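Appendix B, Record 12. Input sequence as logged:
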Amino acid sequence: MSIAMIFPGQGSQSQGMQADLADRYPFVTETYAAASEILGYDLWQLVQAGPAEKLAETVVTQPAMLTAGYVAWLAWHEAGGARPEQLAGHSLGEYTALVCSGALNFAEAVRVVKKRSELMQAAVPVGSGAMAAVIGLDDAAVLAVCEAASGSGVVEAVNFNSPGQVVIAGHKAAVDDAVERAEEAGARRAIILPVSVPSHSSLMTGAGKELAETLANVEFAAPEIAVINATDATPYIDADDIRQRLAVQVHRPVRWVDTIGAMHDGGATSFIECGPGKVLAGLVRRINRGTPVATIDSENGLDKALEL
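Logged structural output:
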């Protein structure tokens, strides 16, 4: 069996996440403490006690999800899990995948992600941007809805997550307009997401250019495990390639359907979501029906993943 491991991004966070893993493994709180030193606040306390609104702010969510994904990875290996042959991450999760591949040091990743989140938040102030998931319309219909709502501001399809699920992002008024239009067009649901920036939209272009300056001074190595870039569904090659693609990643769509397809074509026979929530596992089930999927979102989830 060829394992592919996938790492979630923003939107999968929840208050109290990984508390049961912390009861089993001392390195859980130790890893959060290492991140906290860099961040300048107690990340574990915030993750456990909230408030949830603070945890949903991108400047907190991004380092929290990076740390949570890495902790789940460490738990998998501590429990004797097999080495995966491919890795991928959804949006912010791509940084976690690069850490776990050996391409990026965890402490350095926390610093980069902290800067990334600050640049993204500064690009679009809290409250003026939004993201929404549109469920039950095909890609072409969602693109048409965005075009129709563009008179209210920027709104674009930014995450092609699964057949019938596309995330849109842009100015809040335009996203709200697109949500109404999507429902009128027959969407089963159109839901505003708990995030504070319109990730992967063209509103992040400036943030990407500034991020490139930060990435130029970060030490990367070629991945020891293949990491599939979710912008174009091809593997990262070397340090320069990683820097270039991470810089443009913030303002280009996540093509998750293509990414899972590429991993399947690359030999993946089972997928494990490594981190809080079950969002990516659900997407894989819709993209590749019948493929074995597990989620390391808890102590029980870890035990089930080991049985794959």
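The radius of gyration is 18 Å.
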